[in-house]
Recover the amino acids of this structure.
């Protein structure tokens, strides 16, 4: 027995060659595990607990990452979202899962009342949705998903079925949401722009009388620290805006909140270029869409560029003036191929300058001006860095010839994704995880960055349009 004990007992403090410790899973495996855990069978939730339904622009970013794991599942992700489109063309920002309890998320389906309050706008009867929208990343996502497996896409008729829905979506935005009359799309709620709690909304939101605190219960505070989330005052204003829009039957028009946002419109431009490529793939004409994308870019420069700030600013449509707050939204037009060179160079200087600190004081680009009075490194969209905006900026830097900076940002994103557990957002200085971990688009965009090297830059093909081909 003593001899057996000697053979089977591991010497203290020494590893043995035939029984090594298990290697930790790779970043790619961990990201895939997040997406698998968030998969419902037809779509991917951003977070099982905090966001237990399907979100519009989340699903677009998630599909961009999923295409590397399963092009079929990426197609299904977008098809599920598009199936909830309203007859007027809008793609709702939430598609509710009927198996999730009503009190798991607020505002819940019984708040939006989409099938009744939205009946005049053509809300679907078979699925419950919200009544507002989110940034139009969907055509871009559809094109990139197609490129991941063109044979499968053609065999399934993926683009053939998606194209008319995407065209109707863009038509809704361009025809119904030009509330400022200058050719750009307006958002009518901060949640539509996606950067919900940005200080850029403080001025127009100040006109909104908040809903009484007793009239709603915030489910987000069950899963997130109050100091990381919007204040009760801001949330009351969000609820009031949404309720007023619902009570108008989701009819678009001037209201207390109407803002032309640079990121929302830049993503529409990017998706117009993608729709032109989809049209060409289907044998239709695409030049009209490319011309529209160029006109939108010109309108973006005309209405939202502020030379003194060195970036694009939001425009308060009701007040008729630019909002003097520097948010990451104003940097996103860097991803556009027809942006004038001098403006692109200025944006790069701003990204790397004291207001955003990339390559100097910050690891990732923050969501708001480091020097702004409202900056908070942990509070939702008021300073933390997000993976989707940094992914867009990485593409923009690469497109405009800033390969070194793009490579450094890519490296920083990959390191932060792994170290933070694919956090919802992170402290821009320390990369400390904030919000929830195992967040859908953080994992998905990590997968995208891990795969084939991005496109060459401004003198090569357009990275954001044609994927990693």
């Amino acid at each position: 027995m003593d001899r057996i004990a000697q053979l089977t007992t591991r010497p203290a403090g020494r590893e043995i060659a035939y029984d090594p410790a298990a290697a930790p899973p790779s970043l790619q495996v961990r990201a895939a595990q997040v997406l698998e855990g968030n998969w419902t069978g037809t779509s991917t939730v951003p977070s099982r607990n905090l966001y237990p339904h399907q979100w519009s622009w989340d699903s677009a970013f998630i599909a961009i990452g999923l295409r590397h794991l399963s092009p079929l599942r990426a197609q299904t992700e977008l098809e599920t979202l598009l199936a909830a489109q309203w007859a007027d063309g809008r793609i709702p920002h939430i598609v509710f899962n009927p198996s999730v309890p009503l009190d798991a998320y607020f505002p819940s389906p019984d708040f939006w009342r989409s099938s009744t309050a939205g009946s005049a706008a053509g809300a679907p009867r078979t699925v419950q949705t919200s009544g507002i929208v989110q940034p139009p990343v969907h055509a871009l996502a559809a094109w990139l998903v197609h490129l991941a497996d063109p044979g499968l896409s053609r065999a399934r008729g993926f683009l053939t079925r998606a194209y008319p829905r995407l065209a109707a979506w863009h038509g809704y935005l361009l025809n119904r949401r030009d509330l400022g009359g200058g050719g750009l799309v307006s958002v009518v709620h901060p949640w539509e722009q996606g950067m919900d709690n940005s200080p850029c909304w403080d001025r127009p939101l100040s006109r909104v009388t908040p809903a009484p605190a007793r009239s709603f219960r915030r489910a987000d505070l069950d899963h997130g620290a109050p100091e990381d989330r919007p204040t009760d005052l801001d949330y009351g204003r969000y609820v009031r805006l949404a309720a007023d829009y619902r009570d108008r039957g989701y009819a678009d028009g001037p209201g207390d909140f109407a803002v032309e946002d640079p990121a929302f419109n830049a993503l529409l431009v990017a998706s117009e270029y993608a729709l032109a490529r989809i049209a060409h793939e289907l044998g239709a004409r695409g030049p009209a869409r490319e011309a529209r994308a160029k006109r939108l870019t010109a309108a973006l420069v005309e209405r939202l560029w502020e030379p003194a700030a060195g970036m694009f600013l939001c425009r308060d449509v009701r007040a008729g003036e630019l909002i003097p707050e520097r948010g990451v939204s104003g940097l996103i037009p860097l991803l556009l191929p027809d942006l004038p060179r001098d403006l692109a160079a200025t944006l790069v200087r701003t990204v790397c300058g004291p207001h955003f600190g990339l390559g100097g004081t910050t690891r990732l680009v923050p969501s708001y001006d480091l020097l702004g009075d409202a900056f908070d490194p942990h509070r939702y969209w008021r300073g933390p860095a997000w993976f989707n905006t940094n992914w867009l900026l990485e593409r923009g830097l690469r497109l405009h010839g800033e390969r070194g900076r793009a490579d450094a940002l890519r490296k920083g994103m990959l390191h932060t994704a792994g170290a933070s557990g694919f956090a919802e957002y992170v402290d821009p200085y320390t990369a400390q995880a904030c919000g929830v971990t195992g967040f859908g688009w953080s994992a998905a965009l990590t997968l995208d960055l891990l795969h084939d090297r991005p496109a060459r830059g401004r003198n090569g093909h357009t990275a954001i349009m044609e994927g990693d081909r």
Remarks:
- The radius of gyration is 23 Å.
